[in-house]
Amino acid sequence: MSALESDPQPAALESVLRDAWNAFQPGQPTPLGWLTHTAARIHDYLGAHQPAPAPPAPRPAIDEQAAELRRQVWQTLRDAASDHDIAPDAADRILHAFELPGLPRRWQVRLTLPLTIEVTATNREDALDTP
Are residue 44 and residue 66 in the same domain, yes or no? Predict the structure, then answer.
């Protein structure tokens, strides 16, 4: 026996109306068009008075989704560059295309600075020897 056969089906609206007419007007024929008209009015009423469907759960705003995607792209490229799966310059070019900040990198820079130290000494040799 299938699930459909085991569950009793509700009676059709027309049969309920016909049974109601016979219960209140035994032996009287239903007026012409009464069954169709009454069923149509009931369907109209039920359709107009159905509770509004519950609104779907709010989805994250597009801005939040975009921000999350940008975070994931940045973190994925950072991890790939640190694991040497992608060159840091290539990762930076991709990040630049998404208008994301570049990866943090260490740079060595040589600077030559003029340095003047003034010491107090009695002569040039003593000045050079002063720590």
Answer: no
